[in-house]
Each structure stands twice: as structure tokens, then as C-alpha cells.
Amino acid sequence: MRAAVLNRPGRPGAVDLAEVDRPRPGAGEVLVQVVACGVCGHDQADRAGLLEIPLPAVLGHEISGIVVETGAGVTRVVPGDRVATAQFATCGHCARCTSGDELRCPERSFTYGGYAEYAVLRATSLLTVPPELDIVATSVVACAVGTGLQALRTRAGLRPGETVLVTGAGGGLGLHGVQVGAALGARVVALTGDPDKADGLRELGAHEDVVAGDGAWQAVLEVTGGTGRTSSSTTWAIPTSSDRLSAPSPTAAATC
């Protein structure tokens, strides 16, 4: 099968297209035919050598595909199932996993292998894709969408009617943060450095858009009634970029 293999990070063309043997799933593993795989900032860091990973490696963790074969002990999926990956595989049975805090599972391991025609993945990293969803689009759900959902719902405790400020709203995480905030019933203020993205952000659910610049925070105050928050609730600032802006401090901030 074909795979994009990282052999020597930190150089131009660090990833080489190669023919490699198709893997076989072991106990607790699943062989997936890859339909789509997103490209994430984590992949860029791996390619640049900023993260220490065993080499050679097949990168790619935003994966969707079709189950081809299952290893011993796998019961949650069967051949033919449409699946997408979570960012991490976990044990699935420790106290952290069973309480919904699986990101702190002591056996947590990062997902790799999506830059290939087939990937062997731990069964606990797979989510079944309902038939009504586009399987290509679901490849990025756990990473790009899940990051914002974790920040807004779990960390910030955002509630309907509250106001959320999403910075870097025109970027990959920001676009999804806007949609997640709107889906949670919040009033979304989108801060972007590109005025051409304003209309698109409103179409995705932003109630207000602000263009980054010297007067950005004054504009935020204006669209929130001069206080930086709604009259009855909190403004949550969700920074999704490295912007350093001087602003009134929100009551809380959650970082994607």
C-alpha cells in the first residue's frame, strides 16, 4: 500500500511517499481503509522535529474510513462500519475512562497512521459514523471540533445565553469554536484578522464579528454593552491563536 512516511524531520520534503506492507491488526486493534485524513498543526510539529516520536512514522490522526478487519477481542466495531478517530486511544475501563475524563487515562496514546491507504488503530480510538453524516467531513470532528467542545463545555462550563469571544475565529480551530459556541446556545463574538471572513463567520453562527487591530477590544466592549460581558452572565474568552491583545479580563478563559 502507499503511505507518506516521515523518516527525517526538520528538512524540506521530510515526508516521503513509499510502498509499504499493509498492516494486520493485533488484539484490540482494527484495520481501517482510510477515506480521509486531515492535516493538523500537530502534524506540522512532528514534521519539523519539534516533538519526539519514533521514526520512521506515518503521521495523521484526523482519520475517517471503513473497517476492514478486526483483531481479537474487538466488539465495538465490525467490518464494513464507517468510523472516525478520536485524538487518543485509551484503556476504556479505568476510573478516568468510565467517568468521562478519558483524556487523563494513564494508558492514553496518541493516534497516528492516517497518511496511508490503510491504518491499524486501537479500537478504543474509533467512533462509529452515522449514515447521515459525510464521512470525509467527520475525519476532523474529534480534533478540530472536539478541542473547542472540550474548552467551551467542559472547561469553561459555557451555558445558553452567555457570551463567548472566539479569537482567531477565521482559523481552523476558531471556525469550529464559533459553531460549537452557537450550538451550545451562546452569543458568539468572533474576532478575526481578516475582514473578508466576517460574512462567513456570521453564516457559521457568529452573532457579532470584530476585526483585530488597535481598536478591537473597544469594539468588543461596544458589542457587549460596554462591559465585555452580557448583563446577566459571563463572557468566556477562547483564544485560538497567539494574539496578544490588551483587553479587559474576562471572568474566565479557556484555551483551545
UniProtKB/TrEMBL annotation:
Residues 10-251 form the Enoyl reductase (ER) domain. Residues 236-256 have a biased composition (Polar residues). One of its GO terms (cellular component) is cytoplasm. It is an enzyme of class 1 (oxidoreductase). Residues 226-256 are annotated as: Disordered. SMART domains: PKS_ER (SM00829). It comes from the Bacteria. It catalyses: a primary alcohol + NAD(+) = an aldehyde + NADH + H(+); a secondary alcohol + NAD(+) = a ketone + NADH + H(+). Its EC number is 1.1.1.1. InterPro entries: ADH-like_N, ADH_Zn_CS, ER, GroES-like_sf, NAD(P)-bd_dom_sf. Its cofactor is Zn(2+). One of its GO terms (molecular function) is alcohol dehydrogenase (NAD+) activity. Keywords: Metal-binding, Oxidoreductase, Zinc. Belongs to the zinc-containing alcohol dehydrogenase family. This is alcohol dehydrogenase. The lineage of its organism: Bacteria, Bacillati, Actinomycetota, Actinomycetes, Pseudonocardiales.
